[in-house]
Q: What sequence folds into this?
């Protein structure tokens, strides 16, 4: 079914996003890593775990796609990345917040992440899911899109006054 | 709902992985050294053996330079058809002629297959822009037939902004593809991918 924009729910502005401080080291573990200079890609395969401070990302495969003709070693790394894909039972966890999807793609230029394959955002008992969830980093905004056969669904537990 | 905001950069942390590229794309290239030195023959060795010093040998195929091997000493044993090498300096050339430099304390050249074994503090150093990276392992094997360098030994690669290690590694010269396997661990520092 095609994506039904009308069903897209624009979630309210989230709290200030703490940019990934350049200070903390980022750890990546996997069974295997493949660098392909021809296709300008780097792939981590098998039990991929990315950790930085209290953030953990897991998945089966992670692939970094560099821009055509990019020389990742010469220039500022980030400018040379076109996108990063994490696939296979993707989980992103920080504190009590979890995002799950079959696939998560980070687009450097647009500064957005697209979660597909039964994407779901959870915090405590609150959940929102749809067919496609797009997180816009700079605007700190996310859009959940659904279709007739996979509508947007949100379960929100309002805070009681004594909470 | 805080989940959206706080998790945003969660996934974006993945972008930090690009630093791998600094190592990887550059990793397999190096600085070529051009020197032509005569091999001096000394014969104070056993009958089946011949000793050379300052040995230098270049392998060319169809006019293209494949690799250049240098050693401070080479002992050729005609019975085993192998040459034992000391202080080895091996430059492998990619299809585009880019040099990949490997050095080790000892090595062995197989006369028949032209395979090369390297062991003892095997190192590859590489400068990319203002950054330099170093690979360290205990042994490596170059398969001449299909142009592959492989090591079954633990390998660590370090650079100003990253460290990478794994139990085995392989580089396919023709395909220009590098593989690290077995408990691969990478640590990147100075990573921030939010646009300034």
A:
């Amino acid at each position: 079914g095609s994506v039904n924009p009308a069903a897209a729910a624009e979630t309210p502005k989230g709290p200030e996003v703490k940019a990934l401080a350049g200070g903390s080291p980022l750890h990546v573990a996997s069974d295997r890593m493949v660098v392909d200079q021809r296709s300008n890609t780097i792939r981590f395969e098998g039990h991929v775990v990315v950790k930085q401070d209290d953030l953990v990302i897991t998945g089966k495969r992670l692939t970094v796609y560099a821009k055509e003709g990019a020389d990742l070693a010469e220039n500022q790394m980030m400018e040379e990345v076109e996108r990063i894909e994490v696939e296979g039972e993707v989980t992103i966890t920080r504190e009590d917040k979890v995002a799950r999807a079959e696939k998560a793609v980070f687009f450097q230029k647009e500064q957005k992440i697209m979660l597909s394959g039964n994407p779901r955002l959870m915090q405590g008992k609150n959940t929102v899911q749809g067919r496609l969830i797009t997180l816009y980093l700079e605007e700190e905004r996310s859009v959940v899109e659904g279709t007739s056969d996979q509508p947007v669904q949100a379960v929100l537990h309002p805070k009681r006054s004594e909470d | 709902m805080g989940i959206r905001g706080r998790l945003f950069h969660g996934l974006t942390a993945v972008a930090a992985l690009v630093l791998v590229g600094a190592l990887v794309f550059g990793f397999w290239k190096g600085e070529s050294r051009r020197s032509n030195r005569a091999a001096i023959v000394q014969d104070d060795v056993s009958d089946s053996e011949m000793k050379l010093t300052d040995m230098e040998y270049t392998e060319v195929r169809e006019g293209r330079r494949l690799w250049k091997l240098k050693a401070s000493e080479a002992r050729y044993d005609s019975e085993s058809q192998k040459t034992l090498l000391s202080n080895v300096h091996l430059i492998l050339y990619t299809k585009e002629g880019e040099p990949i430099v490997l050095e080790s304390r000892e090595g062995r050249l197989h006369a028949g297959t032209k395979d090369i074994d390297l062991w003892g503090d095997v190192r590859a150093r590489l400068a990319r822009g203002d950054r330099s990276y170093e690979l360290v392992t205990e042994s490596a094997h170059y398969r001449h037939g299909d142009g592959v360098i492989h090591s079954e030994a633990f390998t660590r690669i370090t650079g100003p902004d990253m460290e990478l290690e794994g139990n085995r590694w392989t580089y396919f010269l023709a395909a220009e593809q590098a593989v690290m396997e077995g408990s691969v661990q990478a640590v990147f520092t100075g990573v921030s991918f939010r646009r300034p």
DSSP finds two helices and twelve strands in chain B.
